[in-house]
Amino acid sequence: MDGAVKPEGSAYYPMLPSLMRKAYTADKRLGFQADSLPGLEAWRGELRSKLAELTGLDRMKACALDPQHMEGPVQLDGYRREKLRIQTEQDVWMPFYVLVPDGLKSGEKRPVVIAAHGHAGGGKESVAGVVSHPAIHAAVDKYSYDYGVQLVRQGYVVLCPDARGFGERREYWKQGDSDKQVMSSSCNHLNHAAISMGYALIGFLIWDLQRLIDFLPSLSYADADRIGCSGFSGGGMQALWLAALDDRVRATVVSGYLSGYKDVLLLETHCGCNYVPRLWEYADYGDIAALIAPRPLLVESGDDDPNSGPRRVDNVREQLDITGKAYALFGCEDRLALAVHEGGHRWYGERVASFLKEAL
């Protein structure tokens, strides 16, 4: 709470210290406490139900996907790229790139990785290596943001979607081609509006990814029984929540995201898409990650990543201690891995290839 203490002699009277006291004294009603597999399964069902309620996922309605081809195929170095779109809710469309590795034999199906993007990358463009805009090119260089391309070159079919509020899904006041506009998002406004209606933006993002999984069987070269999800920063947030709530995801890579909310969401300033009303009454991110057990989970973090909060990687390890208890009950601690790298906030990816090869 050091960052929330009122400085000696200050003329200001903020309310953050009061919020921090509330957060630190609140009981996690659905924090992980199981001591048996039957207890774990009961807890999993209860927490998943509560998360669906808090995010509005339990009120989402499916519609016809109506897949449409938009661009391509374009042959690139070692893979081809196409752009499609699907309808995730009535009149709500999600465009995405499909990256297909070269060398597929007739009738062959490859494992699939959904590569979710975060902020400051122009949406799906950076992940898919579409760097026609100078700002996106700079983001790829800074954050190693083209992990969709890295993954397809490892032999996976990769889907790179735009999340709501990003890329081609920006609302009208954020649309345009300037550096600032291309790199911006509408998620603060969208989450404010969603919260006022009893939803949370993360619920919409996860719904869209679940609909993308529903679409996968229509791709003749995609093995819909071997699905991984990966993401950096806000993409790591999406990967974490998707895998926690959807057992169809068999392996998960969370980069630059998993840490405790008290250090991060209260002491630091983050985008509104991270915030779910009343979440901290029930669970922290380590508890949400525990919902993924026993499926393989790789968490990577820079040892000086400011997005992990003032305690940096200690905050990450604290949450994974919670997660590890679920894996221990299954007797598969080896399926939970933490890769700490020297550096700040970026995608590292050094252990991803070997992790996914074994998991998928």
Notable features of this structure?
360 residues, alpha/beta, Rossmann fold, 9-stranded mixed sheet, 9 strands
Classify the helix fraction into a percent range.
25-40%
CATH-assigned homologous superfamily: Alpha/Beta hydrolase fold, catalytic domain
**Main sheet overview:** 9 strands, mixed
Second rung of CATH, namely the architecture: 3-Layer(aba) Sandwich
Integer average pLDDT: 93
- Fraction of residues in β-strands: 15-25%
Shape: globular
Q: Write the element-wise H/E pattern from the N-terminal end onward.
A: HHEEEEHHHEHHHEHEHHEHEH
N- to C-terminal distance: 41 Å
Rg from alpha-carbon coordinates: 20 Å
Number of strands: 9
Number of helices: 13
Q: What number of structural domains do the residues give? A: 1
Low-confidence stretches: none
Strand order of the largest sheet: 1-2-3-5-4-6-7-8-9
Description:
Keywords: Hydrolase. The protein is α/β, with parallel strands linked by helices. The chain has a single domain (35-359), classed as Alpha/Beta hydrolase fold, catalytic domain (Rossmann fold, 3-Layer(aba) Sandwich). It contains 13 helices and nine strands. The protein has a nine-stranded mixed β-sheet with strand order 1-2-3-5-4-6-7-8-9, sandwiched between helices. The longest helix has 19 residues, at 37-55. The N and C termini lie far apart (41 Å).
